[in-house]
Design brief:
Layout: E1 3-7, H1 18-23, E2 29-33, E3 49-52, H2 64-78, E4 83-86, H3 88-98, E5 103-118, H4 120-123, E6 135-145, E7 152-158, E8 161-168, E9 173-176, H5 184-197, H6 202-208, E10 209-210, H7 219-227
Parallel strand pairs: 1-2, 1-3, 3-4, 4-9, 5-10
Antiparallel strand pairs: 5-6, 5-7, 7-8, 8-9
Helix pairs in contact: 2-3
Length: about 230
């Protein structure tokens, strides 16, 4: 049976609780590790899959917990364990495995509900191909993967993000820029909260905000495909 390690990179628990969001989409056994809180890395011996969550932090930062989580991802990838990163986690797996030069502040941030469409490579991928194309999911990101490293494939894109789903060519590591696990009500709460805790970002958030909620509810299909590996 799968045993999932959830690397929870959230900072404001009252604003964003990724463990709750992801766990309700699967009944598999899981253990949680929270790097921003200084927790010790649990044993990986019984872990079969790893989920790296989003965060209110920027991937362009060099906080000690970000650097140590990059080291953890490299260790996990060296063991050959399947890894799925979402939003900040999507960016972190690319930074960890290919370098900091492949993540940046996005010139076209995305907030609200966006349309994601597979590429031809995504049509052949065992995870991305299990999702409808197009599908709609919640998004909230200031940063992005860019440019795409040579050892990654781009599996899907949105209008404002060229590499919405990516896959590492050297092992079973995927990144998804968006937040399919966040419901419509939670998305509204998250954006309201981000504007409260990041007042300097309000103008950017409002300018990019897609207000019409359109959610394809792909979280269960995504996790099922990933955990079946």
């Amino acid at each position: 049976m799968p045993r999932l390690l959830i690397v929870d990179n959230s900072i404001h628990a009252d604003l964003y609780n990724p463990v709750t969001h992801w766990s309700r989409a699967t009944a598999v056994d899981s253990v949680t590790f929270r790097p921003p809180r200084g927790e010790r890395v649990p044993s990986l011996d019984a872990v079969t899959h790893v989920l790296v969550t989003g965060s209110e932090a920027s991937i362009n930062g060099d906080d000690p917990w970000i650097l140590s989580t990059c080291e953890l991802v490299r260790d996990i990838a060296a063991r050959g364990l399947p890894v799925l990163g979402s939003c900040f986690g999507h960016q972190l797996v690319v930074r960890a495995l290919s370098g900091r030069e492949f993540v940046r502040a996005s010139p076209t941030p995305e907030f609200g509900w966006v349309e994601v469409t597979r590429t031809p490579a995504g049509d052949r991928d065992p995870v991305a191909s299990r999702l409808p194309s197009p599908f709609f999911a919640f998004s909230a990101h200031f940063d992005e993967v860019w440019p795409l490293p040579a050892d990654w494939d781009s599996l899907a894109r949105s209008a404002r993000c060229d590499h919405a789903i990516v896959k590492w060519r050297n092992g079973p590591v995927w990144g998804v820029q968006h937040h399919p696990e966040i419901s419509v009500d939670e998305g509204v709460h998250l954006i309201d909260g981000e504007m409260r805790v990041m007042p300097d970002k309000c103008e950017t958030i409002l300018a990019a905000y897609q207000r019409e909620p359109r959610d394809s509810l792909v979280t269960r299909a995504l996790l099922a495909a990933f955990l079946a590996l």
